[in-house]
Design brief:
alpha+beta; Aldehyde Oxidoreductase, domain 3; Aldehyde Oxidoreductase, domain 4; 7-stranded mixed beta sheet; 5-stranded mixed beta sheet; 16 helices; 26 strands; globular; binds dioxosulfidomolybdenum(VI) ion
């Protein structure tokens, strides 16, 4: 197998003496994933299987459940009538004027996407439930479906005219009348989060106490608890949600899904514990997808190469229902633009439309990649058009370090960072000047070589998080946090942070998370927030506890707080890479990759390193190979990992030079910024720029993601000059 050499500076070099405390259980197969929960003590465990719609859009004329009910082992077959009145959970109102569909959890009269649940079968075994589901007869009348970005299709919901659910508009100054220096049109296909553990739930209703226990594979246990309670018509205190180990999430588990709520209702009705484990195919079919955006932009420079104006139009496909954070990608992309650059005029319009497909939710980056990819493409294209070096053009137009932090004319607050330093350091490590000269001097042979760079700023770590800290009688401490984990190593980093603040060894600190019965209500693990915000809450709790102890409080003494920050931390970074594209096959190969990242104050450099490299692999997958495909009838063509390409170790570049250039965030007490999403932001933008740089001499002016060998080959062989 190919291996990747990673050159990291001492800031991010993994330190073998600082092992992750989570790893002992994870490496021994003792992780607390939903599918790993011991069920031997759960008498009468039932297994759940959903029957799903085979049509993208159809009327349900009739349904026959009795044959399935008569099958061996079947405990219950529940259809739309059993879930009447239940609605999709609430949506975060991030944008003004959002048009929210009133969507039933299991509609009785129609289906709006392939994969939408139409019945739930509960049986003694999963196999029995599956076999019985196949005997359910549904009479469908097929109807025309609305594809992503289709503006002419019929409305999915009467309350969302034109299917236009989300809108955003920003205007600063005015746009010039003259022709733009550069324009770009980019499509980001739907992608799948593809976590190691697909969605899963284990639920137990206790009739004597009227309480629900739910093990859920979720990033947001506290919100899940509220949504489950709402669906059951009970108080949140009657629900416990447990999610201690979550096998990856990447945004795909930040929402409560129809299935979760249907299962809770079924558990109470059946009076037996039940378990549902989604298959990989179900995750691809009926989980949330990411990206699904079309970006249009124009950039104007003056004669001196100063950026004058940006015009951007961003379209997002939304699918057939809105998950909690449905508006986050559009909102993020719109408010980030124009990114790291100072210019006097910009106009950004965003629109999100429903379609007969799986919902689109947040996915590692959530709108940040869109903003970065569009802006960085425009900058490179403008540089090419005007004959300016792209590095020089960036250096001439970024905010200088002493101008930050500041509030921009759009009201967006930009955190402290040193953008010129990021560019210059990356250029040094990449040997930019020499490499450019070599590229120009080398005649094209079997390979076309391109150099691409991307600079990004990414808002993260906003809002608040909870912490409860107890000084135990035996001299140890117990931290319970509302932040959760999906593999990042939260227990390790909080223990380390707290040990530093309290002046004890990390081993003296127990960290509890991901259990609403043992932890204070909080937000969870998303939006690159848990160290910046959750960590700041932890530090504040440590201060308060020490003060209480200094004032003579007795052991065990507890402090509990919910800590808010006014502003948002912004991470930043610069990626430079060299790409070789094989003339004969279009096969792309990264031959050099430099990434300088500013994640603010680093609590656990070794975990930061892991997040950066992991994010880079995910960003590489999206940029080069991943794409969810629907056909013209709304049928999913990429329903398995045989059809949906994920990156493997051998797809990683041979060498990565990773360096941290931290500046302290001005937004939170800890000075930390986010790190989890950065790898999906700069890398795809730099790859797109490098591919354009390589193929521009052939007359290629339009490339789309994923930049697969086939796509690059087609571009090379259909352009005018080849
Ligand atoms: S896309 Mo993230 O889990 O906010």
């Amino acid at each position: 197998m190919a291996s990747t050499e990673i050159h990291a500076d001492p800031h991010t070099e993994p330190q073998p003496d600082l092992l992750r405390r989570e790893d002992a259980r994870l490496l021994r197969g003792q992780g607390g994933f939903v599918a790993n929960q011991p069920t031997a003590q759960m008498a009468g465990l039932a297994h759940a299987v959903f029957l799903r719609s085979p049509h993208a859009h159809a009327r349900i004329l009739g349904m026959e459940l009795d044959a399935a009910r008569a099958e061996p082992g079947v405990l219950a077959v529940l259809g739309p009538a059993d879930f009447a009145g239940l609605q999709q959970p609430r949506v975060n109102g991030l944008l003004p004027g959002m048009k929210l569909p009133q969507a039933a959890l299991m509609p009785a009269d129609r289906v709006l996407a392939v994969g939408a649940p139409v019945a739930l079968v509960l049986a003694e075994t999963r196999q029995q439930a599956q076999a019985a589901a196949e005997l359910i007869w549904v009479d469908y009348q097929d109807l025309p479906s609305v594809a992503d970005f289709d503006r002419s299709g019929a409305d999915l919901y009467a309350e969302v005219p034109g299917n236009l659910a989300l809108r955003s508009e920003t205007r600063v100054g005015s746009l010039p009348a003259g022709e733009a220096s550069a324009s770009a049109q980019i499509e980001l296909p739907r992608v799948a989060a593809a976590p190691l553990e697909p969605r899963a739930a284990l639920m137990r209703w206790d009739a004597s106490t009227q309480t629900l226990q739910a093990w859920l594979s979720t990033q947001t246990p506290s919100r899940a608890r509220e949504d489950l309670a709402h669906a059951l018509g009970i108080a949140p205190e009657q629900v416990q949600v447990v999610a201690t180990d979550v096998g990856g999430a990447f945004g795909g588990k930040a929402s409560v899904f129809a299935e979760d709520l249907l299962l809770a209702v079924a558990a109470r009705r059946l009076q037996r514990p039940l378990r549902w484990l989604a298959t990989r195919g179900e995750d691809l079919l009926a989980g949330t997808h990411g990206r699904a955006s079309r970006l249009l932009g124009r950039l104007w420079l003056d004669d001196a190469g100063r950026m004058q104006a940006l015009d951007a139009q961003l379209e997002f496909a939304l699918g057939h229902w809105l998950p909690f954070s449905a508006a986050a990608p559009l909102r993020n992309a719109c408010r980030i633009l124009p990114g790291p650059y100072r210019l006097p005029n910009w106009q950004v319009q965003g629109e999100g439309r429903l379609s007969h497909a799986a919902a689109v939710g947040i996915y590692r980056g959530a709108g940040r990649p869109e903003a970065c990819i569009l802006m960085e493409r425009l900058v490179d294209e403008a540089a090419r058009q005007q004959g300016i070096d792209p590095l020089a053009l960036r250096l001439a137009n970024v905010w200088p370090a002493d101008a930050l932090p500041r509030r921009l004319a759009s009201e967006v607050w930009l955190d402290r960072c040193d953008l010129p330093a990021l560019l210059k350091r990356a250029a040094t490590l990449f040997d930019y000047t020499q490499r450019r000269a070599r590229q120009r001097q080398t005649p094209d042979g079997d390979f076309l070589t391109g150099i691409g760079m991307a600079l990004y700023v990414e808002p993260c770590g906003q809002g608040g998080e909870s912490a409860r800290l107890t000084a135990l009688a035996d001299g140890r401490y117990q931290l319970a946090t509302g932040a959760t984990a999906q593999g990042q190593g939260r227990e390790t980093s909080y223990a380390k942070l707290l040990a530093g603040a309290l002046g004890c060894a990390p081993a003296q600190i127990e960290v509890l998370h991901g259990d609403t019965a043992r932890c204070p209500a909080g937000i969870g693990a998303l939006a690159s927030r848990s160290t910046a915000i959750g960590g700041s809450a932890v530090l504040k709790a440590a201060e308060q506890l020490q003060q209480r102890l200094a004032e003579g409080a007795a052991l065990p003494c507890t402090v509990e707080l919910f800590h808010h920050t006014a502003e948002e931390a912004w991470a930043s970074g610069c990626v430079m890479l060299e790409l070789q594209i094989a003339r004969a096959t279009g096969q792309p190969r990264i031959t050099e990759l430099v990434w300088v990242d500013d994640a603010g104050v680093l609590v656990s450099p070794e975990l930061v390193h892991g997040q950066l490299v992991g994010g880079l692999a995910q960003g590489l997958g999206q940029a080069l190979m991943e794409r969810i495909v629907y056909d013209a009838n709304g049928q999913l063509l990429t329903g398995s990992l045989m059809d949906y390409a994920l990156p493997r170790a051998e797809d990683m570049p041979p060498r990565i030079t990773l360096e941290s250039l931290p500046t302290r965030s001005a937004a939170n007490e800890l000075g930390a910024k986010g790190v989890g999403e950065a790898g999906c932001i700069g890398l795809p933008a730099a790859l797109l720029n490098a591919a354009h740089d390589a193929l521009a001499p052939l007359g290629v002016s339009q490339l789309d993601f994923p930049l697969s060998a086939a796509a690059l080959w087609r571009a090379m062989n259909s352009s005018s000059s080849s």
